[in-house]
Amino acid sequence: MLAIEKHFSKFARVCGFKVEGERGFDPMTETMAALEQDTKGAKPLSSSLLYKFAEDSSGVVFSEGSIGCWFEIDPIVGSNDSIEKNFTMFFADELPAGGYLQFLIIASHEVEHILDMWQGGRKYGGQPLEKMTAYRRHFIENLARDFSSADDGRLARNYRSFVTYSIKDGGDKTVESLLKFKKKLENKLKAENLNPRSCTAADLIVVGRDLLQMNLNKKTKRQQKPKYNIFNNLADQILEPLVPNTVEIDQIIHHNTGLVSKVFAPSELPESFCLAEMINLLGNDHRSIPGRFVISYTIANNLGSKGASAMNAAGSRSIHAAQKSYTKNDLVAQEEARQWVEVKALAKRGESFLQESMLVMLTAPSNEIEIAEEVLKSLYNTYDWKLEPCKRIMRISSLAMLPMMQYSYWPSLKFFKLTRYALSGEVVAKLPIQGEWKGVPTSGALFIGRRGQIFNWDPFYRIGGGGNYNFVVMAPPGSGKTFTLLEVAQSMISKDVAVFVLDIGASYKNICKVLDGEMIQFNHSCNISLNPFASLADSGAVLMKALQLMEQGIDDEEIQLKTGLSLERIEALRIGKSGASAGVKESDGIEILEIKGQDELGNIKTHFVTKDSIIYAKAMLATMCGVNGDVWGEAIIERAINEGVAKYGRELDITKLCQILDNLKDRKGEAVEGASRFADCLYPYTEEGTHGRFFSNGANATFKRALTVFELEELKNDEPLLAVVLQVILMQITMQFLCGDRSKRFMLIVDEAWLILDFAANFLERFARTVRKYGGSLGVCTQDLSSFSNACGKRKSQAAVLECSTWKLILQQKEEGIASFNASESYRKFAPLIASVKKCSQNKYSEILINTDGATVVGRLATDAYSTAMFSTEDTDFKFLMEKEREGLTKHEAIMALSKKYGTLPELGSLEGEKKCISYS
């Protein structure tokens, strides 16, 4: 046509029909025709979107012919009958006529905001931990974008769940009814602990782009959440301009990214299904979907009374027909009638007739999409779902998955047979609101759920506000125990928590050297004094000052400024002074005792000590003297401690305490029978005794480093001494933080605790019960549950240590370990889950079952090459590092060399978000 127009234009000029300078054709017409040819008839995808504008203040989104609202929710972890019953009633009674409720879940590769929170909390530890943070972040981001990692169980994701509602736009009255239902829906979601958050226009832009223009480009700079411009059409702001894609019969090709999307719908459904099983459609323990997938499930209350009557009438006809003589042997007719009888009975009990539609979108690189599709279909087939691609309607089916678009696209879905009739109770079982635990909202140790959800775990965060900060780790050798504890240690150090580790076997040597920690080795050359009474006499001085300020009516903030005590510790003082029960005071209160007496010079002295410190000291000495549980013996020891504090104050040590015991008099002035025997028992720990060098010689330990490791390898064959050293360390650390840095938190990890638990159980029980109020966390590592068993009735303290630990971490167990869990009433119900916990045979991750009130989840600890090299306890790796250090390399350089065995590390200066390259001298 254009060629003909040009010829006619030339002809007109020759014949003089045009004046000079006048064009013979319309330039705009020719331009549009050329554009049509260049783009092969392409139209902007945004022109197919129906969104018009949004009101963030009310949460209402206005579209062509419809209005809607939406929430982002937390997933349900686990399920119970009450949730299904409540939703069934809600759909039957509360879902407005003409309303469309969509449940949308996105298995997103965008994990940045979780990593931002994790990285934002890691402010301490200096350059070594900055480096570890950068490597770990890069590693997790790569896992999230590398769908091939689905094969080895390390595909990281962030599952985002939404509930959207749309209805026909009928003017102001419709908006009012929408807002009323929005509030009702929000309250229902809150009641089910789904923590709904009202979404905004900016959220819609993010989700719309994620669904229709997914981008795996790792080098794309992370951007702030896009801003919604109220002056422009919302549909034009959803998508990035000039991003081409082609719709084919069974796929959508994204040209710029090399990705391909496919949309599927279930052609067959399982005969029976329940809400708890829906999580299997996200993947299972052994199979992950190697692509980004989206599940959209919509419930429509659009039949009205007329439609419901028609359904009932159809059922009545089927039942009536089955009663005829000519159908009595027709098995199909009889089965259909039986089903209608059940349906009508459910409807009579209050269930409503609804319509449902389910769509699944899968996106993966073009060279991986076929594999991803087969895995997806195979996974669904396992649970009796059969998926078929939405051939020839890929575009409309993908648009129908967008938030709040269900009202508009329902007629199309119905036309292409992508909708079904269902009862309100039936649809609840198919809600895609199951998911994995999202962890605690603070930075901590990073784990990956079995279905990919990355999450943080921090023992200092208490779910629901109850419990303490203690944790136990049950892990036999070879299960990944050291990796787990090292990950916890470095995570806490990065948050300014002082970490102390009692280790046997030098497992913490590498991290201690890299993080400039202090390693105290208990051997013949040890020059550190662990005098258990070093700070005892002053343990309550500052606390007493705080109590005096309280009595003067000074507010807590002012007391905090004057004493340096944390608000939590000030509250503990108040509880200790209150009329609370003994149990509450033990776990939550700090009590101060006043000890008066004459010092060596005859001066009257008053010492303020904490009640806990006296009990700690008594329990420790009772262990050393072998009188645990002996009321008389413990009373004599307590008297000796009080007299020692009064006489010697800060100078009290075990040698001087023995002198007190040798000269201890009763109220009649006579020598206390048996006290000298206790002094004899303590002799090995005095200046002249075999072990005296550990308790009096050398300088007192100050614990100023972020990480302090007590290496007890040379004491492991002397379990009683090992138990005593453990208790002295625990007591000194507590006193250090009670009298020193009174606002800083600390953690003590007792590795290989099964070696000494029976010798120090009483002390550990007391420590576990009271350490929280001093800002401390106790981590006790044993092989399995049997270490805490009180089946014989004589190990109450061992069982109490477990009971006093809010968090339980269980790694891969041996047969005897699984047997101990099966024998426990408390853990029998978790035994199958515990038995499923595994360590990857290729050492790519270790699984950890994390159990507390309100959460029982399995996380996978997968570390970057640098952390893997640092944490490794393999003999060959240990020898390699020793050889490199002998060659003159620093510990960091040696670890960098070893890391090549476990993967490739990027140059830190090239990492996205890095302001400068972190280097070591």
TrEMBL record:
InterPro entries on file: F-pilin_assembly_TraC (IPR053155), P-loop_NTPase (IPR027417), P-loop_TraG (IPR043964), TraC/Conjuga_ATPase (IPR025955)
Gene3D superfamilies in alphabetical order: P-loop containing nucleotide triphosphate hydrolases
Residue span(s) of domain TraG P-loop: 467-533, 677-900
Leader sequence segment: none
Highest taxon above the source species: Bacteria
Protein name listed in UniProt: Type IV conjugative transfer system protein TraC
Organism name: Candidatus Megaera venefica
Taxonomic classification: Bacteria, Pseudomonadati, Pseudomonadota, Alphaproteobacteria, Rickettsiales
